[in-house]
Amino acid sequence: MLKKATGLIAFILVCILLGKPAMAETYIIQPEDTLSKISDKYGITEDRIVNLNRLDSTVLEPGQQLEIPKTYIVSKGDTLYKISIKLDCTLSELIRANSQIENPKMIYPDQIINVPIKNEKVYMGSPSKKRIALTFDDGPENIYTPQILDILRQKDVKATFFVVGKQAREYPEQLKQIYKEGHAIGNHTWDHPHLPDLSDQELKDTIQATSEEIKKITGVKPNLFRPPYGEFEDRQIALLNKQGYRSIIWTADTKDWSGVSAEEIVSRVKKEARPGVIILQHNYHVSGEFETVKALPEIIDYLRAQGYEFVTVPTILGNKNQK
Hints:
Layout lengths: L1 H17 L1 E2 L3 E4 L6 H8 L3 H8 L11 E4 L2 E3 L6 H7 L4 H7 L14 E3 L6 E2 L8 E7 L6 H12 L4 E4 L1 H6 L1 H9 L3 E4 L12 H19 L5 E2 L8 H9 L3 E3 L3 E2 L8 H11 L5 E5 L9 H14 L3 E2 L2 H4 L7
């Protein structure tokens, strides 16, 4: 009995010393549930729910299970550095997960802060403002890319292009134009491999070669990365994090690569639209039907009429230094 009591006291002391991380909780989606309702219920932002559960759609299905993101209750004497040690994360990860804290030096007891998501894939950006990010994969090239850039220029829209290294080498002028016109640029590997099939060294090589090519053409090294097909393993995400890249997926897939009509592309976007959404499109296609260019003006006009602002991925992630 004495041993049990001693063990219990020791456990309580450890909990006090370590602060008060909330217990993990699973939620079952009910009919009529929405992301916003669940967000309000738990006091957790929608993007954290989406990113933790790796949801590539904002539409929820009854019976679907969601893990609720953990939070941490600040104890007396805590600093963000001390909390980062307790939570086994880096200080930069902790600050990034709590961009709502305007002054990282000013935290107070009983304040609730977000526990960083391990090996985070970003599916959705900050929903704090009515913003959406258009993204385009697999280019540049000289057929669809110029048309997309013309539309974006005419509509005064900034987007994000995830660039394939060999395409950048073949079409450097198109990549220069993307950069000069104020669009964000991310790394999409050298030749679009399936990343789970690669060794760590092969992954490093394809990313490094692509970033070097982008920097040679634009003068800027990207810090965003999107895996081909949206697929890679947690160990690969960790490797990318160490190299300074954020892994970006999407919340709304237009399926434009599959040959769907412009009407279907627009319909998919309308269905998924909400603040913080990242939309997947392409600016390269080998053959067959491809109606992104036809759909793009209608997407922009519709979302703008709904009050959305178009921003780059860095902006929707809450990077205050970029537009």
